[in-house]
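Need tokens for this chain, all 230 residues.
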Amino acid sequence: MQKLQRNAYPTIEALAEGFAGYAAGVLSTALARQETVSLVVPGGGTPRAYLPALAAQSLPWHRIAITLSDERWVDTGSEHSNEHLVRTCLLERLNLQPHFIGLKTSHGNPETAIPEIQQRLNTLPQPFTLTVLGLGEDGHIASLFPGLKLHEAAETMAEHCIAVSPPVAPSPRVSLSLDALASSEHIAVVVKGKTKRQLLNRLENDADPAIPLVWLLQCVRTPVVVFETD
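Here are the structure tokens for all 230 residues:
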């Protein structure tokens, strides 16, 4: 897959610094030509390592709007909440507060919340300036999982977000749509672990159409920059 630009690091600490420098460069360049920019960040375990490094970058954070790639439908104070993760590892470490848009609402389920979340996301500069994604061992990105066939649903293409009931996850989720992710000006994928790196190796030789990362690569306009370590 020629749309992947892979950068390998010996340690997660080195990766965090490399990613933070890249992200700061992308955002600074965009801020030189426009007043505000947008940053999409993921949840999961790996961002705990690199979001603090990003927070240490000297940026005009008040001119950066931040949202999430996806969210579990749990209370935002829960340790399983992606918003809780981002507040703890990024927002609370900043002196200048960015405009943060969470994806969780007071609705009982993500399906009924979509109109409100769409309105929230409409306040962000779009297309997104920089979207950062993780990668699951099954190849999922955001909360787009193998087998969901969301990439085939034409009615979702114009939407920023979609409701998802993952086949193996304990709670329903809301996710940015494939089109919203793929339309981003810059996309980075941060990968930690041998199994995930082996998946990337396999996909470079065989672009399996069942894998959500492949769906993304088939839609993107620019190369996807990968930061990876064991």
